[in-house]
């Protein structure tokens, strides 16, 4: 039941197994909570893998479900122990989207739609700093620097020579034309995006304005897929103060269908490179027209 995955996926697998045991026992989460004298929300959080699970939690739940298979109990206890290990992101302090990073770290592939900014895994350091600074105007510089470092660390999945992350990104024209930082930063960023799109495991498709309305107009989303069949896909929706993770098969299927429509409406890979290069050249030209300087403000 264990494999070479991070603590986030381990918690998720353990939670799924505990939910299965509860359902086999014919108990509701409310009934379990009442018997253990804990809140129902705790049982729900344990089962959805959103909080760490202690070995004591596993022991109490197994007793409640009258699990007699000692090997299974021992395996679940070991999973609980491993799920409490720290991921690499813990070294950076309090990272608000650590659950997502955990999923991304163990994912085999990502399908991303970005309407406003370029994909985080394909950002240059200068662009990343400008994006984060703009999104968090009141954040101190050390916090911005920390988030940039986390983003750059995440990008190592793309360049991993042994198991690179498969990334498919559909990017709206708005994200390419919005001047984040300055025109030089944008020109360099789009050139980098084109270079990365030549990697065999990276696909970038541009979605120009003249393609009209499309299914992604409601906002950004990411579909994470895993190599182990027991780890179901997850749809990630980023929020301002909280994020949403959709794991129901019907939800994942709905977003997967939306993504297929987005890919069909977007330019193909070669056309996208040409389109992105042309936008990059426009940014470069504006930069030259300003004398190669960053505009004030």
Automatic annotation (TrEMBL):
Pfam families (UniProt xref): DUF5753, HTH_31
Boundaries of every HTH cro/C1-type domain copy: 18-72
Molecular function as annotated in GO: DNA binding
InterPro entries assigned: Cro/C1-type_HTH (IPR001387), DUF5753 (IPR043917), Lambda_DNA-bd_dom_sf (IPR010982)
Protein's UniProt name: Helix-turn-helix transcriptional regulator
């Amino acid at each position: 039941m264990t494999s070479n995955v991070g603590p986030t996926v381990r918690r998720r697998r353990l939670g799924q197994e505990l939910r299965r045991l509860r359902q086999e026992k014919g108990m509701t989460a409310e009934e379990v909570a009442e018997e253990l004298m804990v809140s129902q929300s705790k049982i729900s959080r344990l089962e959805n893998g959103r909080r760490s699970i202690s070995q004591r939690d596993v022991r109490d739940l197994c007793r409640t479900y009258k699990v007699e298979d000692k090997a299974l109990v021992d395996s679940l206890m070991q999973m609980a122990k491993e799920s409490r290990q720290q991921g690499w992101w813990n070294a950076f302090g309090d990272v608000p989207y650590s659950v997502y990073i955990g999923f991304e770290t163990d994912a085999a592939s990502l399908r991303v739609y970005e309407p406003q900014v370029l994909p985080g895994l394909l950002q240059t350091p200068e662009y990343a700093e400008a994006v984060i600074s703009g999104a968090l105007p009141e954040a101190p510089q050390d916090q911005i620097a920390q988030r940039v470092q986390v983003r750059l660390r995440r990008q190592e999945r793309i360049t991993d020579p042994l198991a690179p992350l498969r990334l498919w990104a559909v990017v709206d024209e708005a994200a390419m034309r919005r001047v984040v930082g300055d025109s030089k930063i944008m020109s360099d960023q789009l050139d980098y995006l084109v270079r990365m799109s030549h990697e065999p495991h990276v696909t970038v498709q541009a979605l120009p304005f003249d393609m009209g309305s499309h299914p992604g107009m409601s906002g950004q989303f990411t579909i994470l897929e895993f190599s182990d069949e027991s780890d179901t896909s997850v749809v990630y929706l980023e929020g301002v103060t909280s994020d949403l993770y959709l794991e129901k098969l019907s939800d994942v299927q709905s977003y997967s269908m939306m993504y297929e429509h987005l890919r069909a409406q977007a330019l193909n890979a070669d056309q996208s490179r040409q389109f992105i290069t042309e936008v990059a050249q426009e940014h470069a030209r504006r930069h030259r027209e300003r004398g190669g300087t960053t505009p004030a403000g």
